[in-house]
Design brief:
66% of the residues lie in helices and 0% in strands. The chain is mainly alpha-helical. Among the domains are: 97 residues, no CATH class; 243 residues, no CATH class.
């Protein structure tokens, strides 16, 4: 009972923070002609309610795809339709075809914000609570509410969902999938992940760990017995789930192909939001390797779009291959969670057409291991929020950023005493340190070095945050600070990728894991 009382307080606090952030600005507020993601979500409601399904993804006189055309899978469209149906009952002007474009009012803002709250309450927050209660370690059970507090106070997701404006449904469904797999409900987990993937195609970032973990379980059970049966059940579950999601589009091959073209517009080239035409101009700043390199090398001018695609695929594949092989050969729930982080980070750093918000696809899996490596998880989550700074400044979310980020750090310090969890063993690097043999003695000063680097990192992020918000850049370098934020964040992420892969590859204990039989 006491645990549930603490959890109730945690949830109320998390909801209060979300409500406070939602009172502020949102993406594209009062900025015609395109406005921003808020208008995109409203426009999809307009389109899905007023047009037949066969026109949702096609360019027509009533559906100009250049104006926030639908570019997410069918579940996003169905969700938009449900929201539009409710909006129509309240005020038909909110979703009126053509005339509602750019609609802005306080009642409508309240409605849109409420739809995000409902999504949080029904999908994301329950998944977090149940996940924290399901943690196996006794010490973690005692800290279920504090673990949930830190996850629910992660500022990156709050600022994007309730500030910038987007729905947490795909991430919430992915969390439900992880929760199901942790209880060996593999078929339910497969359904949940299929739903997540059919809500946002960016869930592909998590697809390989799910595939490798479940395939590894089938191998362990034996492909001539129980393993083959499980494999057949999983394949059938995936096929049925996808068929149900795509059923309204399945009667016409051209419909399916058009949706796929909208989901994967490869003709745009390597960059989506980070087309650096020069080191001094970049409309949106993404902290991945391609955008950072483009400060020095104009990749899009040197390499053709098709070659960019092949290069991106090759580097991404090679970077995530070690973790996937390890997970397939030695499937464990702990290895699965770390592989979710590593693979998603590989996709973010090296894949095709990355948006700055995609870092949330890495951050949420990191939240799942915050009880295991609280120091590194907290550090990563702070950097991920910092990497969103240019977008947050554009959306006038500086104050919420300045309040929620220190609050999150304080919660992690109080909950996990992170500055005391910096030994090689705490960071799960003991096996790696022992493998260095003659260099093991260097690890004696490792905790002090790591703490120093952490404090230096925090100081650098704080200074760049203040400069970005308060100091006008030089005229000949108008994007100096956003580019600096992107490059500094990218360097952090590359080091984190190395760290997570070391933990995965040198882990032979799989502590607290049930044997797969």
């Amino acid at each position: 009972m006491e645990k549930w009382s603490l959890m109730t307080i945690t949830v109320l606090l998390a909801l209060t923070v979300r409500w406070a952030v939602s009172l502020g600005s949102y993406s594209g507020a009062g900025k015609p002609p395109m406005y921003g993601d808020y208008e995109a979500q409203r426009h999809w409601q307009e389109i899905t309610y007023n047009l037949p399904i066969r026109q949702w993804y096609f360019n027509t006189s009533d559906n100009n795809l250049l104006y926030w055309g639908l570019d997410y899978p069918p579940l996003t469209a169905y969700h938009s339709f449900v929201c539009a149906y409710i909006a129509k009952l309240i005020n038909p002007d909110w979703v009126a075809l053509h005339t509602s474009r750019g609609y802005e009012s306080q009642p409508h803002k309240l409605f849109m914000r409420t739809t995000v709250f409902v999504a949080d309450l029904l999908v994301y927050i329950p998944a977090v609570i149940l996940y924290c209660f399901s943690l196996k370690e006794t010490s973690a059970k005692k800290k279920a509410s504090t673990c949930a507090l830190c996850i629910l106070l992660y500022p990156g997701l709050i600022l994007i969902d309730h500030g910038h404006f987007q729905y947490p449904l795909s991430l919430g469904l992915a969390l439900w999938a992880v929760l199901c797999l942790s209880h060996d409900w593999d078929l339910l987990g497969s359904v949940a992940f299929c739903l997540a993937l059919n809500y946002k195609q960016m869930e592909l970032y998590h697809s390989l760990p799910f595939f490798c973990y479940l395939l590894g379980k089938c191998f362990k059970k034996g492909l001539k017995g129980k393993g083959l049966v499980l494999l057949a059940k999983l394949a059938g579950t995936v096929l049925v789930s996808f068929a149900a999601c795509w059923l309204p589009f399945g009667t016409d091959v051209e419909q399916i192909m058009q949706v796929l073209r909208r989901l994967f517009p490869i003709d745009r080239g390597l960059f989506e939001a980070c087309m650096f035409s020069s080191p001094t101009h970049c409309p949106d700043k993404v902290a991945n390797i391609w955008c950072s390199l483009s400060v020095l090398i104009k990749i899009k001018n040197v390499i053709s779009p098709r070659t960019q695609l092949k290069l991106s695929f090759a580097v991404t594949f090679l970077s995530l291959l070690p973790a996937c092989i390890k997970l397939t050969v030695q499937p464990s729930l702990r290895g699965f969670k770390f592989a979710l982080v590593s693979c998603a980070l590989s996709f973010f750093l090296f894949s095709f057409q990355v948006h700055e918000k995609s870092i949330l696809l890495v951050s949420v899996p990191v939240c799942l291991i915050i009880n295991e490596i609280p120091f590194m998880a907290t550090w990563f989550l702070l950097v991920s929020t910092f990497s969103l700074l240019p977008l947050l400044l554009k959306d006038e979310l500086l104050l919420p950023y300045a309040v929620t980020t220190p609050a999150f750090l304080a919660a992690c310090l109080a909950s996990f005493s992170i500055l005391e969890k910096t030994s090689a063993e705490d960071l799960q690097l003991k096996a790696f340190s022992l493998s260095l043999k003659g260099y093991v003695s260097w690890f004696k000063s490792f905790p002090r070095i790591v703490r120093s680097l952490f404090l230096l990192s925090l100081s650098l992020m704080a200074v760049l945050s203040v400069l970005s918000a308060a100091v006008p850049p030089p005229q000949h370098l108008p994007d100096l600070f956003p580019v600096a934020v992107a490059v500094v964040s990218c360097l952090h992420f590359l080091l984190f990728l190395l760290y997570f892969n070391v933990v995965i590859l040198w882990d032979s204990k799989n502590r607290g894991q049930k044997k797969i039989s």
